[in-house]
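Forgive a beginner's question, but would it be possible to get a protein, spelled out as residues, together with the matching structure tokens, please?
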Amino acid sequence: MKEKINVLVLPSDKTGVGKFRSIDPHVFLQNLYPDDFHVDIDYEPRINDMKYWDKYQIIHVHRNIGSHYDQTPAIVKYLKSIGKVVVIDIDDYWLPTVDHPIHSIIVQNKIHEKIVANLKEADWVTTTTDIFANEIRKINKNVLVLPNAIDPKEPQFNQPTPPSDKIRIGWLGGSSHLHDLNLLDSFVQKNYEINDKLQYVICGFDTRGSVTEINPTTGEQKKRDILPHETVWVNYEGIFTNNYKTLDENYIKFLKEFKEGEYISDKELPYVRVWTKPVSSYAMNYSKFDISLAPIKNHIFNRMKSQLKVIEAGFYKKALIASEIGPYTIDLVHCLKNGEFNDNGNAILIPESRNHSDWSKSIKKLVQNPDMITELGERLYNTVKDKYDLNKVTVTRAEFYKSLIK
């Protein structure tokens, strides 16, 4: 009986990116290839125990070994010196732009430089897209694209969308996207004529978190919990409610209480706040809307992002309106020509030069052609359903890992 390849997986977290880049891919690897691989997943590696590493041929690291930014390059060098193959995975560009909430923290602690040092030392780097791979090759020429992928049987990607008299416009994301959402540029106000036909939905609302205040003179950092009204999600909500002008006083009062409860109304609301869910169930929120929005500003951090929003919307058969930027140009084909729908497109793409007008116009176009909402969802599903099926991507990973062990 042939020897199995032992793989040690060191995720960066249990609750976020670790799911898509480290945990799920390697659970699938173990399950699909039980005779070829043995996988251990460890969130707290014993980095100073030299025997800890002995049984493994491949070490998969997401970005960094635990919280040991300074030690990671030396650990990787040591592992290579004793014959281990070190694969470092990265899914985000190492230096967020100045409008990102953690930019100053990254720069002050030189985390971007430490990530680059890690990538230089790796035997191989895996990442999400060819766009990002080409950037990484400036640092390390050994790069393989293993895209984010979805288990099509996972319950959170199989929730039915309930019927509604309104067309629901949704956005799902995290707390670092204010500058992206600002691209929507008063789109609710611009669609005032059809807002009675629409319901706007924000998914991921969260009042948890902290504020890190940096003394500009001393550089001293102080962290405190944010107050509910300080959350960036209040700004998001302003964008999707025309600064709450689309809501009645009782609903506004309810929202300002920041309680995780359902507002009881005898009619469908113009806006719905959906609170954050864990990474194991957040995608269920795609079942709460019909059209998904994906605006992103054109800068290097966003251009290097993955196309996960495309993949998720596709598996849920949602019509997608997205920025014609970076990752969203990989699989998406614009479905309009001279203002009319064509047979080839699978989404509506918004050029950077049209952010001021086309988000609202595109929503209006779909409201006027509701059958195209369903049609675009089907087309997008057909685009992603095989290419980003975790079963298929795992085949590529298995072949890659086998090639590393001669």
